Amino acid sequence: MAEKEVKGIKKFFEEFKAFAMRGNVLDMAVGVVIGGAFTAIVNSLVNDIINPSIGLFFNADFSEVGIHVGDVMIGIGSFINAIINFLIVAFVLFVVIKTINSLHKKPAEPEAPAEPTTKVCPYCQSEISIKAVRCPHCTSKLEGFPEINN
After folding, report:
1. Is 70 left (phi over 0), alpha (psi -120 to 50) or beta?
2. Any idea where the domains of the chain sit in the sequence?
3. How close are the terminal C-alpha atoms of the chain, in Å?
4. Cross-strand pairs, 141
5. Inter-residue contact 132 to 124 (CB < 8 Å)
6. Does CATH place domain 2-103 in 1.10.1200?
7. pLDDT 10s digit of each residue in the chain, 150 long?
8. Which UniProt keywords apply (predicted)?
């Protein structure tokens, strides 16, 4: 019985190792770590640069604003601060991601050449419609077209 349990535990850890070492799990782990570091950068940008810059123009701290209902104060100001901080962080993320995406922008693929609408008459070298059966300049019958009976 003990040998069977040891084999079961070994199999369990082998399955766990196979799961943990799969590519998408490792990619996700790297993404979480980089996301944490990126969060610190964005928070520093917002808290150390943008919020003080806004504070130069007006007081953006609404934490003291509230509604008093009896002995209870409902902190609407803290909620307003949270909304303002969310909007600032969302805007900063938008600008940063837009900038990063523009750096990685692939060059536009050249458009396929348009179908020609004209050709050159082999007899007089005039430019004529690609659908022409006869050249309007020299009246030569062009090759490759059956006689048209009207």
Report:
1. left
2. 2-103, 114-144
3. 99
4. 134
5. no
6. yes
7. 577 777 888 888 888 877 777 767 777 888 888 888 888 887 888 778 877 777 777 666 677 778 888 888 888 888 887 888 788 888 888 888 888 888 887 777 788 888 888 888 888 888 888 888 888 888 888 776 655 554
8. Cell membrane, Ion channel, Ion transport, Membrane, Transmembrane, Transmembrane helix, Transport
